[in-house]
Amino acid sequence: MISQADVLGALDGVRDPELDEPVTSLGFVESCVVSPDGAVRVRLRLPTYFCAPNFAFLMVADAYDAVTALPGVSHPDVQLVDHFTADAINSGVAARSGFVESFDGEAVDELDSLRRDFIRKAVLAGTDRVCRSLLEGGAAVSDLAGLTLGDVPWSSDLERLRARRSELGLPSGDGDPLLVDAVTGERVSPDSTPAHLHRTRLTRVSVEANGGVCRGLLHERYPASAGLGQREE
Amino acid sequence: MYEKNGEKYFVVDSHMHHWDASPENWVKGHENYAKGWIECFHAYQGLGPAETHWTIEHFMKASEEDLMKNVFEDGYVDKAIFQSTYLKEWYSTGFNTTERNGELSEKHPGKFIVNGRWDPREGDAGIKQLEADAARWGLKGVKLYTAEWKDSSRGWTLKDPEAYRFLEKSQELGIKNIHVHKGPTIWPLDKDPFDVSDVDHAATDFPELNFIVEHVGLPRIEDFCFMATQEPNVYAGLSVVIGGLMHARPRFFAKVMGELLFWVGEDKMTFGSDYSIWEPRWQIEGFVDWDYPSDEYSDYPRVTVATKKKILGLNAAKLYGIEVPSECRLSDPATPGAQEDAALVDSGGVRV
Fold first, then answer.
1. Cα B142 to chain center, whole Å?
2. Which of A103, B18, B273, B344 could serve as A107's disulfide partner, Cβ 3.0–4.6 Å?
3. Residue range(s) defining the domain that contains residue A63
4. Does A220 contact B256 at a Cβ distance shorter than 8 Å?
């Protein structure tokens, strides 16, 4: 029989596309109830009433898909609470409608390109995480352009970077360069490496500072209750 | 003015408000939005020190006395710049209109600067209104919301020919400071309101205007920085950066400041308290005392007394032509201005 831990495990794979972090560790999972008959009821919450509906929609839809895909789930019920577009998102996701159909007249574009833009940012931020630890370990900036992914010692940051690159169709094999352009996938030249590293650092600071604000606002909104699987950064 | 260790800081609060979000002002049928909006702002206040938090009732509508005390008497501010936000769909008389701000400004001469607004989709009528507002309030700045939905239009960009007409008119009327809101918006739902590429175009074509991007494009600081580093007349408005991060997330605050100092530079950053989300007092005291917390930040540009004087007031005073008392000016007249300093940043963003 399916357990709450199984469901939370599946939700660990659902990310806030803007922050590139799991909805669980961010504290967005308010409750998760599993019934003996396989019915699963998940409630998601966000830091503010006005968090961007496009990202909210992606998270609820991804969570719905993740729960539905678990073997033994008879009735998935995944809903967003306390949000100004909660009704439209919940009914749209449950009916498996797209974003445009769920917000008739208020949106004309689906969210695929938005999602890709943010995976690109995740690639840049992830590159910084991997490179900073190499630099702290004594590598010189000029060394980095010559490295391949396979040259870098294993770490969870490296795994995460490879996963994001592969989601975008960027080269992510052992023999592929550590530093690539996040749009074209081309190798970053040694001359461009310092500028590239400034960009990756800035992108990481931006994403992480944003995550910090979101965690702070979530705490202000729900001071008394941690989310299921919530972890501080 | 704020004084610490013998140094005198002239303070311009370049982004603040005087709103009415009390339940009496909520539009019938839209109470959820009106309430949700102000509660969201109130949560931001929670990111400041506990002793500066207000009750939600107080927060919904600060009185004139509160504002004068919090901003000028206790808050060290020498000159405060009002930015307006209408939101009339939810608030009957508007959330924070030019008129509401202007009324207070006229009661307290010399304390405030009132900024206006325009929307290129209003065409000829909008141009006439801008001329009238400029004459009525002596406008030197406007605040623009490019992502705003209006009738069938899903927002506009500063690149539009109609917007160029308004930029030309602004220049002609002596409105030199264009504050652009690049940040959260409500509708349309799928648009990315953080896209700053239009500012890039307009800033190149209108080199005599200054473009102040409020909230530095948070949460997309990187897009803003890549653009600002290439445009000498683009500024970083620090509202929310100091209030939202300095106390709650000091490590991220240090990194964000480091990045802004690196990419944009200390001559192009302006303080804004975002009152009454946060009171200016703790922000100014904390910022004057602030430095990077450890060696981890040694790659970033250093922060000096002069850096803080510029950010807290001197930069905005230059933009708005505000007279600064001689005791608060920088002693070294050779300090480079914004344009010269920006030339130190090459297109790759690396200081040379």
1. 11
2. A103
3. 4-110
4. no
